[in-house]
Amino acid sequence: MSKYIQVITTTDSREAAKKIAETLVKGKIAACVQVSGPISSTYEWQGKIENTEEWYCVIKTRESLYGKVEEAIKAVHTYEVPEIIALPITAGNPAYLAWIDKVTFSTGSG
Known about the structure:
The protein has helices spanning 14-26, 66-76, 94-104, and strands at 4-11, 32-45, 48-62, 85-89. By secondary structure, it is an alpha+beta fold.
């Protein structure tokens, strides 16, 4: 797997997205969380088609911290089944990737 990943989640409010972002960055398990929105989401939930407004969080971290990131998101997320998806970062600015290492290094993982 890649040493670095982007983790994606969506939530129902800007405040909830900010809480996720602050939890991850303060906990030093993510170097950066970008929040954008509102976005429009259409999906099926409990047999109904839903159309909702959500906020999108893009989280930059190390692959070795994924479990901690997922756990932290679930602990503060407002959804019963939150979207939490990790994508590998296959290449990037070496200085930026080194910054991810520096910011998240104190967690002791990887």
